[in-house]
Amino acid sequence: MFRTGGRHLDVPRGTEVRLGRSGSWAPEASAFLADEETVSARHATVVHTADGAAWVTEVPQGATNGTRVNDRVLVPDRAVRLRNGDRVELGPRVGFVVRGVEDEPAGPPD
């Protein structure tokens, strides 16, 4: 689950959610990101694996304003493991806090 400013986005186990402003590419997230000009139309994906691990990946071509996890800049197309309490930032103005993921190590999603 991502939480910010009273809004949240659930990413159930075994699913992938796309983060971006495009309603066709990121239907769940675009509902609250559509007006965020610093977020790319196709920004990043979040995978919540069946074993409870969660991973964020910036789109392969890169997002215009970048993606960060706890101030660490992501490399496009390289998954980064998320933990409870991590802060994910999409560009300079949009950030989310991660909640509800398992702490056990697991390999990156396929």
Task: Give a written overview of the molecule.
The protein has one helix and ten strands; from the N terminus they run E-E-E-H-E-E-E-E-E-E-E. The protein is globular and about 35 Å long. It has one helix at 30-33; strands spanning 2-4, 7-9, 15-19, 44-48, 54-58, 67-69, 72-73, 80-82, 87-90, 94-98. The chain has a single domain, classed as Tumour Suppressor Smad4, CATH 2.60.200.20. It is mainly β and 110 residues long. Strands 2-1-10-9-6-7 form a six-stranded antiparallel β-sheet, with no helix packed on it. A four-stranded antiparallel β-sheet has the order 3-4-5-8, with no helix packed on it. Helix content is 4%, strand content 35%. Strand 6 and strand 7 (72-73) form a beta hairpin. The longest helix is centred in the first third of the chain and has 4 residues, at 30-33.
